Amino acid sequence: MNVSMKGIVKSFGANDVLRKVDFSVKGGEICALLGENGAGKSTLMNILGGVLQLDQGQIELDGKAVAFHSPAQSLKAGIAFIHQELNLINDLPVYENMFIGREIKKFGGLIDHKEELRQTRELFAKLDIDINPLAQVESLDASYKQIVEISRALMFNASIIIMDEPTTSLTDPEIERVFDMLRTLKTQNVGVIFISHKLREVMEICDTHVVLRDGVLVASGPVKDTTIAQIARNMVGHDVRTEALAQTAQLDKEILRLENLTQEPHYRNVSLSVHAGEVLGVTGLLGDGRSELFRTVFGDGGKYQGRIILDGKPVHIKSTRQALALGIGYLPRNRKENAIIKDMNILDNGSIVTLKKNTRFGLINRKKQLQDFERQRKELQIKMESPTDMISSLSGGNQQKVVLAKWLAAEPKLLILDNPTQGVDVGAKEEIYDIILRLARQGVAVVVLSNEAQEIIRVCRRALVMYHGDVRAEVSGETMNEANMMRLATGG
Fold first, then answer.
1. Could you tell me which residues come within 8 angstroms of residue 84 by beta carbon, excluding any fewer than 6 positions away?
2. Angle at 45 between CA 42 and CA 46, to 5 degrees
3. In 54-152, which ranges are E strands?
4. In this prediction, what percent of the chain has a pLDDT beyond 70?
5. Phi-psi domain of 188 (left: phi exceeds 0; alpha: psi -120 through 50; beta: other)
6. What confidence tier does 189 reach under pLDDT thresholds 50, 70, 90?
7. Tell me: the pLDDT tens digits for 118-142?
8. What number is the average pLDDT over the span 274-299?
9. What are the chain's domains?
């Protein structure tokens, strides 16, 4: 199948989101759809997926004009949309998930489990997928869940699959597993639209690319004819810095010291220190224990052995409330699940940590709350319409800035950032890096947890590399390079 979108225009009120955008993808091709958060990528794909209606323009499938008024119509035409939040039910086996919404029924209306199992096995064999159809979905790792979603799309006879940030929460081996699946799809003449902020992955797996900026098509063509630097430049409209940023850090007193901190099976005998004005990196592969380690520091990790020393005094942190009172802030890894409250507006999300200081006799001082948030909004350059809009109305990068705003308002002495730029575009990354370094200059001790070696190298003066709960080494200067850090993170 060949998909062609011509002259697509879409506005929301006075906001022109797409301005005469052309986009095409064909069977057997993996096309990267790129752009900063808010560039119009999701709107364009929601139009193709039948979620939104275009204002002007035309969609053609194999040269014939079509119009989709619902996701069901788009799916019936052979276009499947796999969203970042996978639409699987953990409590059901794989084969039942394959037929959610289109169950095979026997005479009398009962589900024909035997036939569903047979068809699932048949498809898995055709695609050379090593997954037990009887396994519970909750038992699968993230990459196999992605593969189940892709397989389900093919069970719906999809010829074009839209994948929104498919590798955001995957480890390197899991990413390669999904990429193997995508290569198999190419041989089956299935087209893939690959939405991602990870430009190295785009260079590895994609055949073509399209870049949107502010709702306008600014670049397109074969991936082999471009570079990461050129794509990043097209996305943000200027050259993106690549130099290390934290070489001139001036260290002050020690803020945090850990002595032989242990919590089996997550981590063991971890000793480290962080100073005021320092950005310390902690890296490795997913599952290395770094998140569990610093959740313990934030009072969310349960019982542990060893000592936590804050500002020179031993402390035993039993709750996040206590951690906050001690001057510790923590930005968790998964923004959508653990950092934002989807049913609350931007203002409440950005001030929830400091709500107590703006509350008197049980009543919130809305004027003071708004003043405090407005100060953070200006400092972090959060792009938004109104503070009373829902947090879900913002792009991923601006949501992350709101999460940062709530912690900065608390004025922490120690700020722990777990994958602070996960799921944000290259422009927003640069802004977040600037925020991190500004905090360090102001005397905050910052810990950055990240599995992106380049991120650690750019913003950290030194870093610890973890492997299966152990600190393998401290790296800095010449030893803080990508090859060495990957060697240590894989047990070398």
1. 164, 165, 166, 168, 423
2. 80
3. 56-61, 64-66, 79-82
4. 95
5. alpha
6. very high
7. 999 998 888 888 899 999 999 987 7
8. 91
9. 2-236 (3.40.50.300), 254-327+412-489 (3.40.50.300)
